[in-house]
Design brief:
- By secondary structure, the protein is mainly α.
- The chain has 5 helices and 2 strands.
- 44% of the residues lie in helices and 8% in strands.
- Helix 1 runs antiparallel to helix 4 and helix 3 packs across helix 4.
- The longest helix has 15 residues.
- The relative contact order is 0.20.
- The model has no long low-confidence stretch (mean pLDDT 85).
Length: 125
């Protein structure tokens, strides 16, 4: 069977789509609900030194803080949700920076408008 190709005509418009950072939300990301994957990420973060943890957290906060109000509280809330996937630790309690970084690792940004705009189901087959 030979391949058939269809020419697609593209017509450029003068409209420009600009981002609107006020329309981006931060969502919990549990990586498919796979507990083994969650534990792996969690334990990798536990292996970081305190200074590296703080440095990474500050980098994430610098990037996210402009787009999300109360991002620290959001990260802490996500840490609390992820904790359910992790067996209890008998070691020293985690400091606030490490908890926030764990919450950040289980966060994702989501834009409803871009999801609607770039939804592949609206493209003709």
């Amino acid at each position: 069977m030979g391949k058939t190709s269809t020419k697609l005509e593209v017509k450029r418009k003068d409209h420009v789509i600009e981002r609107d950072i006020s329309r981006v939300i931060c969502r919990l990301l549990i990586h498919g609900g796979n507990p083994a994957r969650v534990k792996n990420i969690y334990y990798r973060i536990l292996k970081l030194g305190d200074s590296e943890t703080t440095k990474l957290l500050n980098k994430v906060l610098d990037e996210f803080a402009e787009r999300h109000k109360n991002i620290r509280e959001t990260f802490h809330r996500y840490y609390e949700k992820v904790r359910a996937y992790i067996p209890s630790q008998n070691g020293a309690p985690l400091n606030r920076d490490r908890k926030l970084l764990i919450g950040a690792y289980f966060s994702m940004e989501y834009s409803l408008e871009s999801a609607a705009l770039f939804n592949p189901s609206i493209v003709p087959h």
